[in-house]
Structure formats: structure tokens, C-alpha cells
Amino acid sequence: MTKGEIAAIVFSIAVAVALILFLDAVHPDRPTACYDGWSSPSIGRQGACSHHGGVREGGDTTPGYLLWIPFAAGFATLCGLAVWFKLFKVEARTSVDPMLTVIMAAIESKGRIRFRYQKKGNEAAEVRELSPKIVKFLVPGRSSTRCVVGHCHKANEERTFALSRMSNVTRV
Fold first, then answer.
1. Do residues 9 and 88 make contact, with C-beta atoms less than 8 angstroms apart?
2. Where in the chain are the domains?
């Protein structure tokens, strides 16, 4: 994370907290109605509810859903500033691997593919024909490798091929 991103996060949080505190301060917890339910603009002054049975004890009579407005506004501000400062990195995948598209089409149609396969430590690539069954990740050690598993017609048995070693993939 860069210093600019950290500064943007700190700024966003500060603005959101300030907004929450400001909106909460605008509507502090204090009695807002007389005992009989009358809403008096004079509450807080002596004698404000004297003809209505006095000031209702028990604090704020604001409906509970309205008390969440400061927090919702602060959260919305935080999210808005995070988007403004591009703190969430959303990367859309616009390109699809053409080799994987051919393999997946062959799996769906139960067809065959032909490709050149470069074995590890072998200089010459071999032409293989495969009836692919599944594409999966193999995890040897710390890295993962995308592979295709299927019936190899050259070896006449099930084999696993790393996509990174395959080239010139076509449907047969």
C-alpha cells in the first residue's frame, strides 16, 4: 500500500467520523416531548411543559431508525471517499485465454484436442491428442499450475498436461 493510499484511508475515516459526530451532536439525547406527548420547542427552559404534565422522563423519543442516520451517513461518506480515492482495486478480466476456450469447448462436447507439448527437460515438443475431461489447478509446493486432465491417445491412458507447456491447441 502506498503512502497516498494510506493518507486517503486516514482522510476518509476522519471525514466519516467527523460527520457521525456532527450529525449526532445536532440531535443530542435530551427530552423532546412533554409528558402528555406534546412536542414543545421550548423544552430546556423553565416551565416549558407546565401545562402538559411536565417534561417526559426517559430521554429521547426519536424513533430508533432515525438514530442510525448519522452512522449511515458516515459510512456512505467513507465508502464514497474510498471509491473517489480508488482504494478498491477492481480489475475486470476482458481477455479470455483462447487455448482455454478451445479446451473448455472440447470438454463440453466430449471432443478431442490436438496440441504441441513441451516436456520438462526435452528440447523437442511432441504432438499430442487428448480427450479432455477437466481443467484444474495442481499445487506443487508454493505455486499452482493450471492443468488439463484427460485421455491421451498417444499413451492410451489418462494423463495430466500443464497448460503452460502446451501450444497450438486446436479441436480435432
1. no
2. 3-84, 98-171
Spatial distance between the Cα atoms of 32 and 55, rounded to a whole number of angstroms: 8
Distance, in Å, from the CA atom of 102 to the CA atom of 109, rounded to the nearest integer, reads 11
Verdict on whether the full-model pTM lies above 0.70 = no
Helix residue ranges, H only, the chain: 3-26, 64-67, 69-84, 98-109
Sheet-wide strand order for 145-152: 157-162, 145-152, 126-138, 113-117, 166-171
How confident is the model over 81-109, as pLDDT tens digits? 777 766 666 555 556 788 999 999 999 99
Q: Which one, of 64, 63, 43, lies nearest residue 54 by Cα?
A: 43
Residue among 140, 115, 118, 145 at smallest CA distance from 130? 115
CA distance 102 to 171: 7
Tens digits of residue pLDDT in 108-141: 999 999 999 998 887 889 999 999 999 988 876 6
Determine the angle formed by the axes of helices 3-26 and 69-84, rounding to 10 degrees.
160
Minimal CA–CA distance to 138: which of 166, 161, 116? 161
Q: Grid coordinates in use for 170?
A: 486446436
